[in-house]
């Protein structure tokens, strides 16, 4: 066992941990980052694909307007980004029929369209009432936290087509079923990223821009100045503290410091032994923030052939498990279609063989874009529920009743232990930008303490 001493320890080298480290580095502080994986980035992971030579983000990939902190990093490191392709006809497949449309809302019968529009308007209005710092404090908090999104949809959306569209939208944003989250969490999350339309949108929305060299390249640039402070392959298993110090242990390191920032998903904090035990509210909170489940399935072609027939590459379909796709091709690069599989569909889909998954994705593409869909160069998919040090994605979601009973424990330090991670963000919670702001906030807490 090697013993190290420093002033501050950061656990987790995702965007949150690296943002916290950056602040401490700027303040000339001594710190060590302990990261379980053999790489930094966490839920961000850029991979090079064998046959096509393309790099793709199997984890987080898009950034959009008002995500000011990540845009600052983009400018600072001069990494190249490009707009996600958002031209031409989107496809909406519902009840065996295929229609094309433009914009965010699919074309459906006028009654369903009005039904959906009214529901979205109501949700957006309600979400504006959420106090992002303290969602539990508003007058309707208990009522809204006691209701799942499933019951809200059943009560408030009358037509089947509008309900199906709402479920697809919700699963795309939260990577879970409507029955798994409370109305209050849904409203908080929408307001945190402005509104539901912004979370679902491409141009001017959360899916606006992509990185030429991937999102891992950006975090690698940010971490470059203090890379010697990062210890990889160090799974933190134990944290003890008294008034003066903390001791953090992995299988091979024992690190002594004044304070620690834990920047890992809340659900994974349950794997760490704390001594003395955390407050009951904090440890019960960790039991109530399960990670969502999502898979990304990429198909790579010589070129984005669907564009010549006027298609945008965006498909919304009621046919499980492949509900939503995007065109992620780089300018003048190969053609890249990305399908998402989310919530219960992801848990089922990953249990098929790779060949079965590939066949399903290609046959869906063939059904919309014709036989050229068979001429792919690469297929790659990634299921995040299989990742030991993520436990799922995109983020940990508050289950019904949790915001109101446990929310105030989310960011509150426990002695010398401070908390970061995108789940603790008020602005763009669940996104890379939220991770950065959470890291900055936690670093400021310890610098000011
Ligand atoms: C498939 C997918 C698509 C997404 N799409 C987008 C997108 O397009 N845009 C967007 O903004 N966001 C997206 N997200 C969400 C985004 O990735 C996260 O919000 C963000 O990366 C979270 O950063 P973080 O630092 O809070 O947590 P993490 O990235 O999870 O970092 C936590 C780190 O802690 C490490 N760790 C865990 N346990 C331990 C331990 N015991 N000891 C030491 N280290 C430990 C982990 O290995 C990890 O490196 C997506 C996520 C996924 C997975």
Count structural domains: 3
Radius of gyration in whole Å, from Cα?
22 Å
Anisotropy-based shape: globular
Beta-strand share of residues: 15-25%
Multimeric status of the protein: single chain
Give a short account of the largest sheet.
7 strands, mixed
Question: Which structural class should the secondary elements be placed in?
Answer: alpha/beta
CATH topology of the largest domain: FAD/NAD(P)-binding domain
Mean pLDDT: 97
Q: State the helicity in percent bands.
A: 25-40%
Task: Supply the key terms.
Guanine Nucleotide Dissociation Inhibitor, domain 1, 3 domains, 33% helix, Polyamine Oxidase, Chain A, domain 2, 15 helices, seven-stranded mixed beta sheet, FAD/NAD(P)-binding domain, single chain, binds flavin-adenine dinucleotide, five-stranded mixed beta sheet, alpha/beta, 449 residues
Summarize this structure briefly.
With 449 residues, the protein is an alpha/beta fold. The protein has 15 helices and 21 strands.
Helix-strand blueprint:
Layout: E1 2-5, E2 8-11, H1 15-26, E3 31-34, E4 46-48, E5 55-57, H2 68-77, E6 81-83, E7 89-94, E8 97-101, H3 110-128, H4 141-145, H5 149-156, H6 160-174, H7 183-192, H8 196-200, E9 209-211, H9 215-223, E10 230-231, E11 238-241, E12 246-249, E13 253-257, E14 259-262, H10 266-269, E15 273-275, H11 280-286, E16 294-301, E17 311-317, E18 324-327, E19 335-342, H12 344-349, H13 354-369, E20 378-383, H14 402-406, E21 417-419, H15 432-448
Parallel strand pairs: 1-13, 2-3, 2-14, 3-10, 7-17, 11-15, 14-21
Antiparallel strand pairs: 4-5, 6-9, 7-8, 11-12, 12-13, 16-19, 16-20, 17-18, 18-19
Bound molecules: flavin-adenine dinucleotide.
């Amino acid at each position: 066992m090697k013993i190290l001493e420093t002033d501050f320890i950061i656990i987790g080298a995702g965007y949150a941990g690296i943002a916290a480290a950056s602040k401490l580095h700027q303040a000339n502080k001594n710190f060590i980052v302990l990261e379980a994986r053999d790489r930094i980035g966490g839920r961000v992971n850029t991979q090079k694909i064998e046959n096509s030579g393309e790099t793709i983000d199997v984890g987080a990939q898009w950034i959009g307007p008002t995500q000011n902190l990540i845009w600052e990093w983009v400018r600072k490191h001069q990494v190249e980004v490009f707009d996600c392709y958002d031209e031409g006809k989107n496809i909406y497949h519902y009840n065996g029929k295929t229609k094309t449309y433009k914009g965010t809302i699919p074309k459906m019968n006028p009654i369903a369209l009005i039904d959906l529009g009214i529901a979205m308007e109501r949700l957006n209005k309600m979400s504006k009432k959420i106090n992002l710092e303290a969602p539990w404090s508003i007058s309707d908090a208990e009522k809204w936290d006691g209701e799942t999104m499933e019951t809200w949809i059943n009560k408030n959306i009358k037509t089947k087509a509008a309900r199906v569209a709402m479920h697809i939208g919700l699963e795309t944003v939260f990577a879970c079923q409507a029955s798994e989250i409370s109305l209050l969490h849904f409203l908080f999350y929408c307001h945190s990223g402005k509104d539901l339309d912004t979370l679902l949108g491409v141009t001017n929305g959360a899916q606006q821009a992509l990185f030429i060299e991937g999102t891992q390249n950006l975090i690698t640039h940010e971490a470059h100045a203090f890379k010697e402070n990062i210890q990889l392959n160090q799974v933190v298993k134990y944290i003890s503290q008294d008034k003066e110090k903390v001791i953090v242990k992995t299988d091979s390191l024992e690190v002594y410091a004044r304070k620690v920032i834990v920047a890992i998903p809340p659900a994974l904090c349950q794997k760490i032994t704390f001594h003395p035990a955390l407050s009951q509210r904090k440890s019960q909170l960790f039991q109530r923030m399960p990670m969502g489940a999502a898979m990304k399935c990429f198909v790579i072609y010589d070129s984005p052939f669907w564009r010549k027939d006027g298609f945008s590459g965006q498909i919304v379909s009621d046919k499980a498990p492949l509900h939503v796709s995007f065109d992620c091709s780089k300018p003048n690069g190969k053609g890249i279609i990305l399908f998402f599989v989310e919530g219960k569909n992801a848990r089922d889909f990953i249990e098929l063989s790779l060949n079965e998954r590939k066949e399903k994705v290609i046959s869906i593409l063939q059904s919309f874009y014709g036989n050229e869909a068979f001429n792919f160069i690469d297929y790659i998919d990634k299921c995040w529920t299989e990742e030991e040090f993520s436990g799922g994605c995109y983020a940990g979601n508050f289950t019904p009743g949790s915001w109101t009973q446990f929310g105030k424990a989310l960011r509150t330090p426990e002695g010398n232990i401070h908390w970061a991670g995108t789940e603790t963000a008020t602005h763009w919670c669940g996104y890379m930008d939220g991770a950065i702001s959470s890291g900055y906030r936690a670093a400021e807490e310890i610098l000011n303490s």
